[in-house]
Amino acid sequence: PVYITMGTSLAVMLPLAAVGGVIKLAQGYVALSSALIMATGTIIGAQIGAATIKKFKPSTLKLIFGIYFLYVAAKFIGNYLGVHIW
What we know:
The structure is a single chain. This protein is an all-alpha fold. The protein folds into two domains: 55 residues, no CATH class; 30 residues. The two termini are 32 Å apart. The mean pLDDT is 92.
C-alpha cells in the first residue's frame, strides 16, 4: 500500500540524514540557526502533511506523486540540456 511505502521510505532516509547532518555539523558546514528554523518548519509541515494525506485515496496519491516525479525528471533533463524549466 502507498501509505506503508511512504512510511518505509521515510524510515530509511531518517538515519542516513541524521548521520550526514551530524558529520557536517562536526565539520563546521552547518549554519545552526538556519538549520533550527528549517527543522521547525519541517516538523510542522510533516504533521500537516500526515494529517492531509489521510484524506486522499491511494490512487490519487499515486497520481500526484507520479506527476511530481515526471516534473522533477523533466527539470533534471532540462538542466542537463541547458533548458530551464520552471
